[in-house]
User: Fold these one by one.
Assistant:
Number 1:
Amino acid sequence: AVPILEEAQMSTSQATTTVLITGASSGIGRATALYLAEKGYAVIGTSRSVVRLADLQSEASEKSLQITALEMDINSDEGVDWVFPEIIDEHGTVDVLVNNAGYGLWGPVETLSIAEIKAQFETNFFATVRLIKAVLPGMMLQRGGTIINISSVLGRMGTPFNGAYAASKFALEGLSESLRVELWPLGIRVALVEPGLFHTDFKKNQVVAEGADSGALAYSSYMEKYKSKHGRF
């Protein structure tokens, strides 16, 4: 994400560039927020709970970094609509949006409920669309901006027992590719980042489908071998 931002900075000074990062309380989002703040960007880090942003705020304060921590429920129109006017009033246009928030849903497709799959898509896909629609009016007005969607290597290939997560990231990739062509003539860049497995809290925060641990499943032994090999627990 950093080289993408640095290239986009050719005509805008860092001091006036505002970067909004979702899921900034931990992992890639938190590391990105701190790094970009150190580089002089005005960073807005969001999470569904302001309590979860306490560590980010503390480290930013210790290092005298410009990071605004905001609680925002990206899974609802009301949650975004409630916070966004405050962002615009304080920072003006969001110059860069980093859609980082997301989580994994683990389990064989057979065991996944429709509600669990919908919840997966709500956070990993629809929330991203919601944030993009929120920042686009300002970006279009200034004829410039950058949207960075954090996908996954699983947005390019599916793996066993990650079907819902992979599906949500495949959807994000398709959206991003189409959006890139739509917005390019308007001076707005769209980029995808496809991380592999890093040492973050992703696995810790992974949701296991309610029916995934049933011993009666035909491939239970296969699942146990898979979890052992990949260090699921």
Number 2:
Amino acid sequence: PPGPPPAFPAAGGGRMSMNPFWRRAASLVSGMASRSGITERLLERRRLSGDYRVFILEYHDVVSGGAEREGTISRERFRRHLRFLRTRCRLVSLSEAVGLLRESAPLAEDFAVVTFDDGTLGTHDAAWPVLREEGVRGTLFVTTGFVDGADLWFDLARRCLAAARRAPLPRPLKGEVLAAVGKWSTDRDIEKGLERLKRLPPEKRDALLLRLRAACPPPPTSMPPVSWDRLRRMHAEGIEIGCHTVSHPVLSLLPPERQEEEILRARDRITEEIGVTPTLFAYPNGAAGDFSETTVEILRRAGFVAACTTLRGSNRPGCDLFQLKRIGIGADSEALLAARLAGLFDEAVRARLPGAA
């Protein structure tokens, strides 16, 4: 893969759409671009040249009500997104999109795909009813250990560090946590700390979290997992179930045998529970440096036909199906969603604006 642009932590364990400053700035820019007609002109210019694309949207959690935390979106906003997308693209499944991208022939229109990472209960309770009512097939990339009852390590770390702000830590443990994550006095500090934790060997990270959890019991998670029973019902009604490893590690940090174990165990667990072997994969975290040629070769041997990154952008026929680009989506306005589709926050922009979209 190409050299990595700046990467940032996310509510769903990938890269967050934007930090708060850039989210405000991007909302302002996208609103101005929409009102001035720039977004529409960019779209029209691309279509006049016959340059049609496949846009793969990356969601994480959908909530039925309450605040839209970073990385989450309300059910009604999600519905508005789907209806807005339908005015600009044809909504298809990821498998259908992969079939289109495998061919060398140019596309005759723009296509959009809806994907979700991790496997939170919100994808069933809030997202699935909307998908069903709007007639849209989505793809859910499942972290199988999470569905089986384990914590998503980044969610556990976030909750433990928040709890540690309110309780004194034993001196040796406090020193270990400071060395691993830096300060954790604000939510932004914690998000930066999660990025550092991602780069630790998983065994060292998990051991530290175990001690931190014992010292500062965290509050319950706000993002519980979906169950296998619910996943089976979703799959029976057209939702594609893809693979997102067992424990959500940064795969490139693992030796080849550990990468293979994470991928094959997750594939086989999904096959056991759903009855269909997954052929679609999403790299945990998913930036350019988070997977390697070794990872791709393991996926090919395991029977996967395509894999999604978190590299921001769109896809053309003939692209590398194991480096599919996605557009990270949170609680975006329609103007910001349009700006993302227009390419205003693609990877090239991110590389020039650290911390941006």
Number 3:
Amino acid sequence: MELSVQSFQLVEHVLTLGYAAMAASLFYFILTIRTTAPKYRPSSVLSVVVMVSALLLLMEQQDSWVAAFTASETEGMMTLTGNFSNGFRYLNWLIDVPMLLIQILFIVGVTGAAFKKYVAQFAGAGMLMVLTGYIGQFSEPLEYSGQGGNVAMWLLWGVVSTVFYAFVLILITRVIKEGKKNLAKSKALPLFSVLLPLFYVSWTLYPLAYIMPVLPFEFGIVAQQVIYTIADVASKVIYGVILTLVGTMMSAEAGFEEAA
């Protein structure tokens, strides 16, 4: 399996941009954590954990990409000579997905029994969504992986993962609608309202990227890595920044002043 040097470098650069975005955001979340009232801060703490996880595992994903290819005898081409998969991404998502889903609960003000119920549902559905997708990616089609594959099993596990994804969408939609009611009188409401379309678009990119291996090798492998990285930045960095800004605005409205 061969791809052009340009395509190889594009993926390498995109993966580098991905973990660089996580590194920069890590500093942002650390430096702004005291701009929010204590009851909102767990959201920022979880964003810090997400950034550390994503940074380290995306670096491993990029290293795996570089190690899997060598220069081809054909000028301007790279040959797949090693193993490359999205395994590191799935390990990252296994850590990050429950935290991303839970952190919004601190901003919308869900407490008590409802909080515990949402935590259990988000953690359970989120982890099952990732684990079933992780199993499925081992059966990716031959055209993509170069290691053989089982299309039927790949699609089956993809469908199972998507079922859990649909459940997550239902839950997050419910939480955000509850949040809108709680923020009805806040100036942060318009910004908070961006979260639902952002969530729908960024999280739907993941199943889209999952099916990219059906395409010809070079286009499929490049498109998948680019889409996954865009989705990671949108669903983690942009999402986390919006939650932090909303928490900061609501804190100010409640009379909270940033600690010196």
